[in-house]
Structures are given as structure tokens and as C-alpha cells.
Task: inverse folding
């Protein structure tokens, strides 16, 4: 995963220079995600869901940081699921080697990591005097392949509150383009948090913990082997 992310970042910079004459991004939407019924791991031994949903985003952002424009917007896509974690992130067992694997809890913690990353990114950008901003969102309950391995009650829920992906895209687009939004703002679809137009609401109380966000940043640098210095 780490090598693949690095290759993609390098290719993006090369392509931007070829197309535009310079490598400049005005918006970076981080939307890679997965929800695995059974535990699986990346080639580096990382638990797959956290690896794809957070560590890959962290590394990719660090590598393409020089490509961002002066007032770029970064959007790690989270989920309302970040509010449903029972425990928060366990830094002593981040790869779920010691605990019984819980597919939903793993996903909720990965989505919480997205919010921590967003808020810490915004704080560090402001501290460095930069105009680069970071917002996050729950895109809504889309009719995608994310839940393809889950059956039973999930099928009923999906049919009741899900929405076509193209209609939900307005939520991500607002997060990426509405420059009145502030660092760390969190958007959700208006109707039950699953569908409808985007509104700004508070993220979970747990996601506001600056100490945990700072700890996750340092842990992410350690795991992906990449320092992410903003300034």
C-alpha cells in the first residue's frame, strides 16, 4: 500500500506538470475506503480498513503537499459512523492483533481517524500561517459497493435511507468548494444524516480531543515512514 500510494503521488505530480505546466492542486478529496467483513492486511501488515481509510490518505497528502495551491482545500471523507465507535482508537493494538475483530468498530475508528486528521491538519496549517484549509464530511448512505459483503438488516437499511451516489456528491462538492467553511468543519446530509443537502454540524465530542489527534499524527508518521511537516 505504501509503495502504491507513493507511486500514485509521483504520477500525479508528473501529470499535473505535463497538463498545466505546474503541479498545483486547488482541492484534494481523500475518499478511498473499505469495510471488510473479515480481517485482512496490507502488504505492510497494517489492518486493511485503517490502512486504506486513514494511513493511505495521510501518506498521500504528505507526498502531494508541495503540489497544493496557496489556498487549497483538503477533504478527508469521514462518515457518521465516527460517532458510533464504542472505544475510540486503541493505539496499543491499532492493527487488531490482540482483539477480536469487529468489522463495524474497525470502520468507525477509521472514520474517526479521518476527523482527527482533518482537524489536526487545519490546526497545523493555521499555526504555520497558511491559507490551506481542511474540512470533512459524512457523504451520506450511498448505493455503492461498500456494503456488498453485508446482508440481512443492512439490506433493509440501505433500501430505506440510501441515496444514489451522484445525488450525494453535492455533500463532498460543498466540502471541497465552499470557501466560507472553516478549518475542521464537519458536514452531513440534512435528512437523518443519511441523505439530502449538506449542513454543518458538530463532529463527535471524542473527535475534538487535540491530544489524541496529535498522537495519531505522530503514530501515522511512524507507521508510513514519512514525516509530514507543515510550514
Result:
Amino acid at each position: 500500500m505504501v509503495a502504491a500510494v507513493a507511486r500514485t503521488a509521483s504520477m500525479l505530480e508528473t501529470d499535473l506538470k505535463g497538463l498545466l505546466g505546474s503541479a498545483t492542486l486547488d482541492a484534494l478529496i481523500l475518499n478511498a475506503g473499505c469495510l471488510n467483513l473479515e480481517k485482512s492486511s496490507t502488504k505492510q501488515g497494517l489492518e486493511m480498513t485503517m490502512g486504506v481509510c486513514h494511513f493511505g490518505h495521510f501518506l498521500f497528502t504528505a507526498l502531494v503537499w508541495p503540489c497544493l495551491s496557496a489556498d487549497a482545500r483538503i477533504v478527508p471523507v469521514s462518515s457518521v459512523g465516527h460517532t458510533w465507535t464504542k472505544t475510540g482508537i486503541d493505539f496499543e493494538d491499532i492493527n487488531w492483533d490482540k482483539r477480536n475483530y469487529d468489522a463495524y468498530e474497525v470502520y468507525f475508528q477509521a472514520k474517526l481517524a479521518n476527523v482527527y486528521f482533518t482537524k489536526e491538519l487545519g490546526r497545523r496549517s493555521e499555526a504555520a500561517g497558511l491559507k490551506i484549509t481542511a474540512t470533512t464530511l459524512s457523504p451520506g448512505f450511498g448505493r455503492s459497493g461498500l456494503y456488498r459483503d453485508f446482508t440481512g438488516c443492512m439490506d433493509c437499511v440501505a433500501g430505506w435511507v440510501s441515496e444514489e451516489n451522484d445525488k450525494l456528491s453535492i455533500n463532498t462538492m460543498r466540502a471541497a468548494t465552499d470557501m466560507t467553511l472553516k478549518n475542521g468543519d464537519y458536514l452531513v446530509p440534512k435528512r437523518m444524516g443519511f441523505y439530502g443537502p449538506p449542513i454543518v454540524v458538530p463532529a463527535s465530542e471524542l473527535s475534538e480531543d487535540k491530544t489524541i489527534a496529535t498522537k495519531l499524527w505522530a503514530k501515522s508518521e511512524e507507521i508510513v515512514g514519512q514525516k509530514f511537516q507543515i510550514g
Notes: Strands lie at 25-30, 68-76, 133-134, 136-137, 186-191, 195-201. Helices lie at 2-20, 48-64, 103-127, 153-161, 165-177, 210-224. Residues 8 and 107 are 24 Å apart (CA to CA). Residues 103-127 form the longest helix (25 residues).
